[in-house]
Amino acid sequence: MEVNPARLINIPTITDVRGNLSVIDGLDCIPFTIKRVYFIHNVPGGEERGGHAHKTMDQFLVATSGSFDVRINQPNGLSYFTLNRADQGLLIPSGCWRDLYNFSSGAVCTSLVSTHYDPGDYIRSVDELNAFWIGGNN
Ligand code: TYD
For the whole model, what pTM was predicted? Predict the structure, then answer.
């Protein structure tokens, strides 16, 4: 199973004396059609989110306020990202495991994703992840 690597993407931003306006205008910015948007907020200090991968869902995460860290487990190893600005996001393709942690006070994680909610799309164990990488859509 080919898994594309997670990577940072800059969000086009219009800046003037009144502040910044960042625009995610569909496929001009991210390589999938957005089907769903959700927000993670009010995360208590020390709590972690994520802890799974997805079989088909692609995701784009933006720290629209505050900051948090993301650890990605993908076939070529672990990658670490700090998200702390509203004009940049992290593309997490299907097949990449994500852990979100180190949320700052007031952090908001905005999540744009390529599918509607489907509990069956989750990969929740490392064994299942390894099988997915080797064998595809198990
Ligand atoms: P989960 O995807 O595990 O959150 P995260 O990975 O961001 O920590 O989802 C947490 C709970 O919310 C779980 O019970 C499923 C539910 N949920 C929905 O009902 N709809 C959704 O669109 C999402 C993302 C989660």
Answer: 0.96
Q: Tell me which DSSP letter residue 131 carries.
A: H
Report helix, strand or coil for 118.
Answer: coil
Question: Of all atoms in ligand 1, which is nearest to the CA of residue 119?
Answer: 15
Segment 133-136 long-range contacts (CB within 8 Å, at least 24 positions apart): 133/1, 133/3, 133/75, 133/95, 134/1, 135/1, 136/1
For ligand 1, mutation pick of 38, 58, 96 (most atoms within 8 Å of CB): 38
Q: What is the mean pLDDT of the chain?
A: 96
Atom from ligand 1 closest to the CA of residue 122: 2
